[in-house]
Amino acid sequence: MECTSSVYLPTFHMGSSIFLWLFLIFSVIFSPVSAKHSVTWTYGVNYGRIANNLPQPESVVTLLKAAKINHIRIYDADHEVLQAFKGSGIEIIIGLPNEYLKEISIGEDRAMNWIQENVQAFLPDTRIRGIAVGNEILGGTTIELWEVLLPAAKNVYSALYRLGLQHTVEVSSPHSEAVFANSFPPSACIFRPDVAPFMKPLLEFFSQIGSPFYINAYPFLAYKNDPQHIDINYALFKDNRGIYDAKTKLHYDNMFEAQVDAAYAALDKAGFSKMQVIVSETGWASRGDPDEAGANVKNARTYNRNLRKLLAKKKGTPFRPKMVIKAYVFALFNENLKPGPTSERNFGLFKPDGSIAYDVGFTGLVPSAAPPSILVSFKEIAGQGWLRWSYLLVSTAWAVVLL
């Protein structure tokens, strides 16, 4: 179960203008994701697959490229998915599911086998950039997993180190808001007393290997649980009075940034003021049960559109202005087999046919409400391949110019 400590020390004419414009179209379509993007990215999407109506992973790659989404997170290490993303340039965080934690925590050899089979075998063509060890373990109800999370994470990192992959693949573990004792105002946030004895050594390890703190932050859940006292406009990034944190003298005009800064405050108090916070999940349900306040298409569109605009600014939060906010939106598709309330099955940005569920500003796809004459089906795009699809785009461009 233990790993040796040494492991962790470690002016144109008309014709020229048209030509340039078409050249730019081809450049956007065929250019790979630059290495620089891995540093400057701010927007990613969670690709959950608890459903029986989703497109094949190869088609999902086509969809992500069309939407210019270059960072995703999956909840396992499915080989069909990893193979489909080969050569795509899309960066992936894979998941080590909760049910594997006990086994991986037992010994480094088991972690090594898992890494060799699910990570090393696909590198470098599939750009696996992180492993999320478990999901929402601390603060959860399965107490026996609290004790094995850290040794599992250490064994995973140890295996990566021995394979020379420690600088390529990051090790992390996403947490829910349940790890906090309180989060309002943001400066008052601390880790729960029962969680802290497990959280602090985990943070010490992550600090040592340079990993960020991943938090699942959902203004939707906060609003759903207390609609009488939370301003819906505050949760949706719309005009509102906001809140004032008297201790820091900071003003917040949206709940999302307040939740991120609450995490920073908790880290600060625990002694990890330099650790970056990344939002591993956030989103808004487009449908819910009668008692799920705010779950509708209008609010989902508003939240996700405004969140995307915020992230595109590549700025920090009021409390950490120099720490650029990064977030993975939940989720790519609705997942019709997920258990729980109706909202759990209705967080998707896209429909299974590749059309958008609602308009949040993505380019390259058309809304499902568009006239059939201008719709190009998702299956058609995937089947024809990018060369034929790019020809269609250029033909359309010529038609616009001629008009």
UniProtKB/TrEMBL annotation:
GO terms for biological process: carbohydrate metabolic process. PANTHER family: GLUCAN ENDO-1,3-BETA-GLUCOSIDASE BG1-RELATED-RELATED. Pfam families: Glyco_hydro_17. The keyword Signal applies. It catalyses: Hydrolysis of (1->3)-beta-D-glucosidic linkages in (1->3)-beta-D-glucans. It comes from the Eukaryota. This is glucan endo-1,3-beta-D-glucosidase. InterPro entries: GH (IPR017853), Glyco_hydro_17 (IPR000490), Glyco_hydro_17_plant (IPR044965). The keyword Manganese does not apply. One of its GO terms (molecular function) is glucan endo-1,3-beta-D-glucosidase activity. Residues 1-35 form the signal peptide. It comes from Gossypium davidsonii (Davidson's cotton). Its EC number is 3.2.1.39. Belongs to the glycosyl hydrolase 17 family. Keywords: Glycosidase, Hydrolase, Signal.
